[in-house]
Amino acid sequence: MGTALVYHEDMTAARLLWDDPECEIECPERLTTALERLQQRGLEQRCLQLAAREASEAELGLVHSPEYVALVRGTQALGTGELQTLSGQYDAVYFHPSTFHCARLAVGAALQLVDAVLAGAVRNGLALVRPPGHHSQRAAANGFCVFNNVAIAARHAQRQHGLHRILIVDWDVHHGQGIQYIFEDDPSVLYFSWHRYEHGRFWPYLRESDADAVGQGPGLGFTVNLPWNQSPGPRGEDPAVLPGRASTDAPWPQVGMGNADYVAAFLHVLLPVAFEFNPELVLVSAGFDSAIGDPEGQMQATPECFAHLTQLLQVLAGGRVCAVLEGGYHLESLSQSVCMMVQALLGDPAPPLSGPMVPHGSALESIQSVRVAQAPHWMSLQQQEGRPSSLLLTGRPEFKAAATQDVAALSSLLDQPRLNPTPPVRTAVALAAPDAALALPSDVLCEEGSAPQEETQAWARPHEALAQDRALTALGKVLYLLDRILDGQVSSGVAVTPACAAAATLDVAIRCGLSHGAQRLLCLAVGQLDRPPDLTDDGRNLWLNIGGKEAAALSMFHVSVPLPGTTGGFLSCVLALVLPLAYSFQPDLVLVALGPAHGLRDPQAALLAALLRGPAGGRVLALVDEESTPQLVVVLARVLHGEAAPSLGPFSMASPEDVQALMQLRGQLEPRWKMLQVASEAGGPGSG
């Protein structure tokens, strides 16, 4: 299955016919520029291209009143003066004689995409549409939006396809109040929106955009608002209400949320709740006015960040992700961000995120406020509500001293050049012997090459476990595949190792990776695998063991945690520890080693591998103990190739022991690895 791109050139017909500085940014060039960039990068050609159809009036009626649909239909016969008068009755809206046709195409494109995904014709896709929709309400246009494209698509998925759980993720910089109003009492639709809010002083200036607006009646907890705020200016001024939708004359600094803030919001708010909700479909209100350069949002997130966000969503709902364009008014930023999202939908590795991954204090305050507001409704947030104890550091002076040196070592490395090849092969598998029975994707390469015998023997010499021919042969294949990843010929891979040589092979892989060009290497070791004793804490390697006897942080770069026994405990370990550490460390290469008695079920191993593609730009090498099932090799190869990870199954609460272990590690590591934080250091209760 592939990726659909739904579009129709008629959606460029509507344009502003009079002078209105507020509305002129919603222009046809938003679509044409994005489409041209997709074509230039060869991305459109890789998608299944679908021409949008018009939605029927019955389909519009899934959300909108008959009277409102009739009013918009009537705009086709109005003159310019009448259109301007009618537009003035709404907030930040303009009508054109082609608006009804364009808006029906926008809805129809979203419906076609949902139908194609749920019928299994494609795995995911993007509807490139205008006008946008998430502000539109049952009987009112609002904020450039005429019909609510995503809300209608959700109702269509329920009525026509029988879905019971739909997640809507709205990353537009403005609050999609139209979607919220439509579903605020509906527990079958989970609506998540982050938006520039500034304590109610940013458009649309609504009290119900704040974190404590969590839904109504049976829908309590199914509206999740994450408002981006900013503290008053350095002189403590009380900011005035901002004129218009986005003022550059505000008396305080711009909100300016960046890559770290967006990723932290996903890891600490959206994904825990989404996994517990277990959606059957993910709809994305994909507004790119939340990207850098946009005059509306004035945020700092780079286009690459949206590839990462898309990848994180693809681990939900079996990868069934339908994105529908909303805002985005800086043409270059918009078009680049659209391309990044489509690349991720196609399964391409996300480029590494640049700059230190340190969330803003105001972003952490927002994250904490929404976690507090939502905790009564979600077990996944309740099990993380304990505050990490700073007392754990008091009795560990040796940890403090080592960490001070570690921070200096890490800081000096963050600015060094990153490995960022464009591999011709996305995924390769190195087996001990060819196995035609493995159901691998057709374009996954079965690697038959091996490192030169002399090189392999030199690396193996210090290890008795690698003296046997079988272990030496497997090591040669691991080294060959590792070199192919590091020189940019292959993005990711899976290699099988003998159980008796698993630890020795991992030791060689770490040393070889560091000596052959990786600046920072993350090793996630699962099972009975000890850290090589002479591996130095020089900032170049981070060792994380899942399956240790106890939770321990022997240094900033040596962390161990027991394998949680429940779905909720495992997800907390991954989302609140593994991924924040990985994104903070920003590795060039990730080694995932599944050693003897690793204890992971195939879906758990697949989820780890899928999520770790992001921090390292797709450069992941999984080492699998040969005693694992052959199916595990297939599952890992598929997720590293960009396919969806299998479901973990029903959510179950983490055990008190697992919660305590996670709290202990966060208490030790949060001050150093900032992506672990869920509240500002200067915040109130619960800050960490």
UniProtKB/TrEMBL annotation:
One of its GO terms (biological process) is epigenetic regulation of gene expression. InterPro entries: HDACs, His_deacetylse_dom, His_deacetylse_dom_sf, Ureohydrolase_dom_sf. Pfam families: Hist_deacetyl (PF00850). It comes from the Eukaryota. Residues 25-345 form the Histone deacetylase domain. GO terms for molecular function: deacetylase activity. This is Polyamine deacetylase HDAC10 isoform X2. It comes from Tursiops truncatus. The gene is HDAC10.
